[in-house]
Amino acid sequence: MADRTLSSQVVVGVVIVLVGVLLFLDTTGIYDTGPLFRYTPALFVLVGLYAIVVSGFRNLFGPLTLILVAGAIQLVTLDIFEWAELATLWPLVIVIFGLSLLAGRFDRTTPTTERSVVDTFSLFGDVERRVRGTAFERANLITLFGGTTLDLRDASPGERPARVNVTVLFGGVDIVVPRDWNVELDVLPVFGASEDSRLRVDADHETVDLVITGFVAFGGVELKD
Known about the structure:
Number of domains: 2
Order of helices and strands: HHHHHEEEEEEEEEEE
Mean pLDDT: 83
Strand content: 25-35%
Largest sheet: 6 strands, parallel
Structural class: alpha/beta
Oligomer: single chain
Helix content: 25-40%
């Protein structure tokens, strides 16, 4: 059965389209969207919350810091508080950092899934996923100012080729696959890099097992074994 959960790629795409439409309406004079942009910091608060939920509450420091800073900016923008009043809250960043260290100390396991579709969203932090089973179909990996590791060594494509789409901005993605998989790496790098670092071992078949596509800017995508 196809996985019908809302992917991170769809969520981010919808947000980008919405912002683009608002900018278009404003620049063309169709509608004055200036007042709406006063609530832009609230959008970053929602992004931070989304990143925490998608990571299974493992990635805390980066998203919580973003929520704290964006929330403070929103309160000042709406004239609810003054900067001087909020400046006393900066120790909360230290508290958040400590909580993230404690979370990592007590939970060092890599999340494992047998789902056919994998979605990750990394924001100012690291996300890891290990896939098992024989039904893997695709993965959507979004990394913004962070890192993502996708381990496919215990997985097999349900139908070949399986597909992985990456979107990387100021971050890195590592995809770990068996050495004998035939992989097509078709990622567009802009001030970044995409490379296959596996030791060369000829596969015993010509069928493509995995296709990796996407975009990376100021970061890298690396294929490992």
